[in-house]
Specification:
With 528 residues, the chain is α/β, with parallel strands linked by helices. Helix content is 46%, strand content 17%. It is elongated.
């Protein structure tokens, strides 16, 4: 729903920009055909341009040992078990926070329905008038419809409708025939349908009025080109100025812009080179494409292989920093309160259709804060979380060996033989319980975690890792530990690829990669 509203807002903005430029540069010129093309083209481009998304490429080198599709976001489906960094969240489309959005969409749809119904009613009324009249087919394919009552003459599709007293007025007939020959009715029908989608936009209504005026100027010019006397023709306009057709879908001989029509007929014709002003649409379209562009990241393996993965960068950036004693939150660069996280991520998700949320946390932020953020994200819908953090030197210095503390007792007692349990406590200390259970307990440094995990993966096929963290642990140590465990699985798989096929995993065929995935599957379970 938010995507629909944002799309219509983009269309409204484009219409306003195109129309303002038209009014400034072309509206006073007598280049009626060009003005008509520019106005109609502006409407069509405004509706189409938001769908045109250009992509630009950025290249990022990935180490050969880590250049597997599962490490490149978007190339494969990451599961919660496989990465420990993805979380499925229930849909919350009907949450109370979205009532205003639902109401806005319902109001918008109601406006569209009303406008379309009104247009259909007008078409039915015009059809009834045509059916009730006396028809006189013409050689050029048009049909004169004579009505036995006083009404303003108008044309619609192939019919020219006029009162019996106007039957012999060649000026009126030629004017309406010009509307038909120039195809104004079909064009106006399309514009009316599109204007229903922008019923709330005053610029669209003003633009449509200007377009109808251009239709009249163009038809007037066609009549005068056939040799009609300008003074006599203008007098005909004045005589018929007392009535109106009242139907927005028709082209009426007697329109409300009489003064402008007479002025335009008497005005000196614009020189053709002034039509070059219409080129303003080119930079406007280019600017629209640039504003709607998206990034594509090319991941290149840093070894001699030429493997390149190209993916769309589709991540909502949720940044968590520490400001004094309190955390600060930013969604795509916009500062938000903790209570606004769910709403802001929801808006970004619906606007950009991004399925990943990158939690970019400062190293000193506590894991408890990150866990609270994840609880908020679960209210959004089906998203996947990726952890991102660059541990600072200070955080790395905290990761020194220590003896198991009292707070680790419950964790040790729940260890099961055959699995590996890794515990990060509130002091950023790592406790590693190997496949041997309580007989295989080690306190290790952060930089030792990768080697220890890789060793156990190589010895035990199908091994699972359970990673547990205290809420008081730092996010820097937390994300580094998760990455080390994941890298251990990837490294084992690449080593196996070299032994079995003599190539890095990234260079293997799809069936060969699937075979190694089955042999070495990433199994990291994250406990909260």
């Amino acid at each position: 729903m938010l995507s629909l509203i944002l799309y219509e807002a983009k269309v409204a903005l484009l219409l306003a920009v195109f129309y303002i430029c038209y009014r400034v540069l072309l509206s006073r010129e007598t280049l009626h055909r060009l003005n008509r093309i520019v106005l109609v083209g502006s409407v069509l481009v405004s509706f189409v341009l938001p769908f045109c998304v250009l992509t630009y490429h950025r290249t990022v080198e990935v180490a050969a040992g880590a250049a597997t599709p599962e490490l490149l976001p978007g190339l494969s489906e990451l599961t919660q078990e496989a990465t420990g960094a993805a979380a499925e969240m229930p849909a919350a489309a009907g949450s109370q926070g979205n009532w205003w959005l639902i109401a806005l969409v319902l109001l918008y749809v109601a406006g569209i329905v009303f406008c379309l119904i009104r247009m259909v009613v007008e078409m039915i009324l015009v059809s009834r008038i045509i059916r009730s009249g006396e028809k006189h087919p013409q050689e050029d394919g048009t049909t004169l419809v004579v009505i036995d009552r006083d009404l303003a003459s108008f044309s619609w599709m192939k019919w020219i409708v006029l009162s019996r007293q106007d039957c012999g007025n060649n000026h009126i007939v030629n004017h309406e025939r010009a509307h038909i020959d120039l195809g104004h009715a079909r064009e106006l029908l399309i514009i009316n349908i599109l204007s229903a989608l922008q019923w709330f936009n005053p610029v669209m209504r003003i633009l449509k009025d200007d377009l109808r005026a251009v239709y009249e100027y163009e038809a007037d010019d066609a009549v005068l080109r056939k040799g009609a006397d300008i003074k006599e023709y203008q007098y005909s306009l004045i005589r018929k100025a007392v009535s109106a057709s009242g139907y927005s879908i028709t082209n009426s001989f007697n329109h409300s812009i009489l003064k402008n029509r007479i002025t335009m007929m008497s005005k000196q014709k614009s020189v053709k080179w002034r039509g070059l002003r219409a080129l303003y649409v080119i930079p406007l379209i280019a600017a629209g494409l640039v504003c709607n562009a998206q990034a594509v990241t090319d991941y290149r393996v840093s070894d001699n292989s030429q493997t390149t993965y190209s993916i769309e960068h589709v991540a909502i950036i949720l940044q968590v920093t520490q400001e004094g004693k309190e955390p600060a939150f930013f969604v795509n660069g916009e500062r938000v309160s903790f209570g606004e996280i769910g709403r802001k991520v929801t808006e970004a998700h619906r606007e950009m259709q991004f399925n990943y949320v990158d939690i970019v946390g400062s190293p000193e932020v506590k894991v408890g804060v990150i866990q609270d953020v994840k609880k908020e994200l679960r209210k959004v819908g089906s998203l996947r979380i990726q952890y991102k953090c660059k541990p600072s030197v200070e955080v790395q210095r905290k990761l020194s060996p220590t003896e198991p503390g009292e707070g680790l007792t419950g964790f040790i007692n729940h260890s099961k033989e055959g699995d590996v349990h890794v515990r990060l406590n509130s002091l950023d200390k790592l406790l590693y319980v190997g496949p041997g259970g309580q007989k295989d307990i080690n306190v290790i440094r952060q930089e030792e975690l990768f080697a220890q995990a890789k060793k156990d993966i190589e010895k035990n096929n199908g091994i699972s890792f359970f990673f547990i963290s205290d809420n008081g642990a730092s996010y820097g140590a937390y994300s580094a530990a998760v990455q080390s465990l994941h890298d251990a699985f990837v490294s084992v798989r690449n080593d196996l690829a070299m032994r079995q096929y003599g190539k890095p995993f990234a260079d293997l065929k799809e069936d060969q990669q699937d075979e190694l995935y089955a042999k070495v599957s990433v199994r990291i379970f994250e406990s909260e």
